[in-house]
Structure prediction request, 540 residues.
Amino acid sequence: MSALLEISDLSAGYGPLRVLHEINLTVQRGERLAVVGLNGHGKTTLFRAITHLVGWQRGSVRFDGVEIGGTRSLGEGRRTPGIVRLGVAMTPQGDAIFPGLTVRQHLDCGAWSPRAWRERARRREMIFELFPPLRKLENTTVGTLSGGERRMVSVGRALMTEARLYLIDEPSLGLAPIISQRVIAALREIDCRDGAMIIAEQNVSLLTGQVDRMIGMHAGRLRGDVGHVELG
Amino acid sequence: MDPSLIVYALNLSAIYALMAIGISLLWSSIGMLNMAHGASFAVAGYGALVISGAVFPWLKGLLGGTVLLPYVQVVVLLGAGVGVGALFGVLIYLLAFLPIHDKANFAVRGMIVTLAINLATVQALLWWFGPRQQSLPNVFGFGRLTVLGLPVRYDQAVTITATVLMLGAVLWWLKASRKGLEIRAMMQNAEGAALSGISVRRTALPVMAVTGAMAGAAAVLLSQTVYVSPGAGAMPLIKGMIIALLGGLGSVPGAVAAALLIGALEAATGAIPFLGQRMVLLVQFGFIIAVLIVRPRGLGGLLDETRK
Prediction:
């Protein structure tokens, strides 16, 4: 089977600041991968470089044989919708959401393909099965939700249209342990036999047994492909 | 008080609302302060003039004498204004949005480019049509109706009805379609919208066309009482812009409320003997400045969510 995502010599940053240093990473189909590392070591920037949201970048990113990387220093976010439409779904870090929309509208935003838009009612139902607490919040404004609920909405938004690559940024950030476990369990539910999922996370113990492979990230470089880790 | 003042106020409010909502929507969805909105207004007026000049004689030959003629003429005239306005909106999109929308300082650059388009268009109209004011064919007739005891001129009735229908259609489109959802998503978080597969370039085009069409409708409706001239867009642009500001840029209900308020204020100022028509602008701007000092975000925040 060919690789779904091949990143070679990817460097990226913001203005004079260089955050990623020649990253090389290959993700196979059907893989669940965790990128672990401390705050400020480039996990989020890696995701943002894949979706063209960093200030500048260079190096190759091949997604299912299509080159979505390249060298640029301008046009941040210009190609992002196109990359999303190729089948990359990303849940941004923190609460990058639409505070004034209701949960239902927010989920509908994720249904970008005509087919998903037609089936949006059924797909929302699917998200509510995955995150039962959202069901009764359907008509609540997202800005008034708690952190855990927002994270569920954010993940749910990414699931409304089927993607081949899921980039989940810090699913547990700022959440109570029990809620982070629920979010991780929901991520396990997502079918990625054809696609792949990359989770960026600081809390390694949370991912124990939940992913196929873990890679450490330190100072903008990938350090050590540790495979499956079992922590006491 | 003269009851026809109420109708006059509503008539003004309708035209101002069409302009202000266009400006407000553009600002909140794609972050562009469209200074060429006045040019859309003037161009749509001339478009309606040229098209009606070409089509009406032919229509008269076809439907002459039948009761249908005036109705068909109204539809053709409004359609011409709306269509030309929408096309001009697309032109602004191609010239002022597409090339620079992702460059630094787009808000300022966009304002400068659209201002340039505005000036160039006014000069082009002057060169082509000359400075003479021209009037659109009066298709609404000179009669009066009585609605709820108020005397309403035909053109006022058409203006108010057409505006309500058009705003209703636009609001329904914003509420029910995916594009409307995309616009609101972009208003609130451009990056989140990009990650939802929403392309600013694809969403901006229909917004520009729709706001241009609204300016075109305003031009045809206002031209029933005022003339078409190259500089005709300046005053509707300024009033539309201050009403959009007063309503809280980006808020559609705010813009409607502000348009009603300013329309009523204008009608009332004109009727008060010691103020009169020449003081209308002074009173309007004074009022808006006073409101913005007390409430810098405009009326919008009172009514709904706006650009955060």
User: Anything to note?
Assistant: The two ends of chain A are 34 Å apart (CA to CA). The helical segments of chain A are 43-50, 80-86, 103-109, 114-118, 120-130, 147-159, 177-189, 204-207. Residues 167 and 221 of chain A are 18 Å apart (CA to CA).
